Amino acid sequence: MNATITQDMSLLYLISSASLPVQLVMALLLVTSLLSWWYIFRKLFVIKYAIKQSNEFEDVFWRGADLDALYQRAGNARYPGGSMERIFEAGFREFNKHQSDANQSAVMAGTRRAMRATFQREMDKLESHLSFLATVGSVSPYIGLFGTVWGIMNSFRSLSNVTQATIAHVAPGIAEALIATAMGLFAAIPAVIAYNRYASDTDQLATRYESFMEELSNVLQRRGV
């Protein structure tokens, strides 16, 4: 009898014998968890690359490199520039285009708009899929809870067909219900941790980009005087 109960309480058996709604919940949580882990690792490399490229470009920029040479390098398709370099390229291109204009205020305003537009595009790339991680982190526990509630309801409904209730009658249903809860937490916890980490990293990068835009504006303004 104990061997039968132990076999019936195995993880694979509980999942395979779960009711259809609970199995659908588990399948949804499994797919969601796999997708979130894919985005977690993908964003890890994207953000690390963005930080590395920003460090390298700032190092070159503040060593007093020639701006025209930096612009030529940024426009080279064979050179994989980072977000900060693309912001520089957009601002410097706009500045060169209108440098001969008499109204320097209008030139600098256009330069800042060009940098701001590129900045927004780069931030959109860095922040892509973060909303998915936030959604997984907030919704997955409730999806798992739905599977839990459904499984417990089935367990109690099955008691109406027996004359004497024992733990062996309700344990499988409650166990399958708790598996749904565990899967919901397994999907949610890494997503929340990753979202908080990457949101902080992107905020720091945004601050660096905005500071660089202000500093570059000052450099170009002195150059245009």
Question: Describe it for me?
Answer:
There is one protein chain. This protein is mainly α. It has one domain (2-224). It has 8 helices and no strands. The chain has helices at residues 2-8, 11-16, 20-61, 67-74, 83-97, 104-127, 130-158, 167-224. The longest helix is centred in the last third of the chain and has 58 residues, at 167-224. The radius of gyration is 28 Å and the shape is rod-shaped.
Secondary structure layout:
Layout (H helix, E strand, L loop, with lengths): L1 H7 L2 H6 L3 H42 L5 H8 L8 H15 L6 H24 L2 H29 L8 H58 L1
Short characterization:
With 225 residues, the protein is an all-alpha fold. It is built from 8 helices and no strands.
How would you characterize the largest beta sheet? none
Distance N terminus to C terminus? 92 Å
| Average pLDDT score | 83
Number of domains: 1
Question: Which stretches are poorly predicted, pLDDT < 50 over at least 5 residues?
Answer: 1-7
Number of helices: 8
Beta-strand percentage range: under 5%
What coarse outline follows from CA principal-axis ratios? rod-shaped
The proportion of residues forming helix, as a percent range, comes to over 70%
Radius of gyration, in Å, reads 28 Å
Pairing-aware structural class of the strands and helices? mainly alpha
Tell how many strands the DSSP assignment holds: 0
What letter string, H or E per element, gives the SSE order? HHHHHHHH
